[in-house]
């Protein structure tokens, strides 16, 4: 049974593909690699053989040459078996490595057929002729070795998952064993977060031979790994805490992955919404002129939410409050609550422009909600009210 599938267009580079196939066979065994001209006998139904091979292989090498993308409207597109092969591999969440030959460039998302557009998001290897062939082929072989190792470990441990450890959906686990799992506010994301703090396409979880990784997709509020903002791509380890939007996820790499009752982690779409909206702004009391930092909390959930602590990221998790603003505080659906802190008590190095990002609130469930961008809330302004004899 072939473990690795080589998909390619015959007119592009049969010489390089043949040499690569020989390297794979030498490293993993003669029967380890599927290539159509070697693996489909005379008289065999090649469509059935292709489907059977894709149903059992562990990974695919997708060779991208000058003729990989066919012109729109080409009659050959009606029976494009290369596109069909890659589409089946992507749909099965197989590891797919694009290999660029003859100075080809990776086609952009919009230039690929719809079924294989996810191929554009994968890092590609390059395979050149001599004198670079041996070095380039070795990089591909190391990728296959890593895939084989990950597959063996994954078979025993189960797929990796993210477990939500904050909010009303605490305990939810979602499989992230696909090559790419999108997280964001868009309904096209596998993990759909209905939160103003999440961007449409906020982050992606990547699973491949190197393990599990997270990449921020240019989100407005950032993606944080163990409290540090992710710049580019970050490797994920067992137990890591991932802050996406206003939710905290814990990484589960496979061993014992399941729901709290012992069932399997859900592979499908997860729709998650935060229970609380938190905003921060600076305002002056109209009559006293005293500048304060206001933290406003609004209950977005259909049930009561108990607020236990409110603070800024640079302060301890409990603020002294005015007598009429004690904590804990139970908020009814759509009810708002706020606390204010004198600006004079804030650290001198604290930039007001970044202040609205620093709000934090802990709920009775133990979850922590972070402040969102001030949508409809001015960052500075004034509030009405009589003289205040004592500020918190």
What does this structure look like?
There is one protein chain. The protein has 392 residues and is α/β, with parallel strands linked by helices. The chain has helices at residues 14-28, 36-39, 46-56, 81-91, 133-157, 352-355; strands at residues 4-7, 33-34, 59-64, 96-101, 125-127, 161-164, 173-175, 180-184, 191-193, 203-208, 211-216, 223-225, 228-229, 233-235, 241-244, 247-252, 270-272, 276-285, 291-299, 305-312, 329-331, 336-342, 359-363, 368-370, 380-383. The strands form five sheets. Strands 7-6-16-15-12-13 form a six-stranded antiparallel sheet, with no helix packed on it. A six-stranded mixed sheet has the order 14-11-10-8-9-17. Strands 2-1-3-4-5 form a five-stranded parallel sheet, sandwiched between helices. A hairpin with a 5-residue loop joins β18 (276-285) and β19 (291-299). The longest helix has 25 residues, at 133-157. The protein is elongated and about 80 Å long.
Keywords:
392 residues; alpha/beta; 6-stranded mixed β-sheet; 6 helices; 25 strands; 30% strand; elongated; disordered C terminus
List the helices and strands and how they pair.
Blueprint: E1 4-7, H1 14-28, E2 33-34, H2 36-39, H3 46-56, E3 59-64, H4 81-91, E4 96-101, E5 125-127, H5 133-157, E6 161-164, E7 173-175, E8 180-184, E9 191-193, E10 203-208, E11 211-216, E12 223-225, E13 228-229, E14 233-235, E15 241-244, E16 247-252, E17 270-272, E18 276-285, E19 291-299, E20 305-312, E21 329-331, E22 336-342, H6 352-355, E23 359-363, E24 368-370, E25 380-383
Parallel strand pairs: 1-2, 1-3, 3-4, 4-5, 8-9, 9-17, 18-25
Antiparallel strand pairs: 6-7, 6-16, 8-10, 10-11, 11-14, 12-13, 12-15, 15-16, 18-19, 19-22, 20-21, 20-23, 23-24
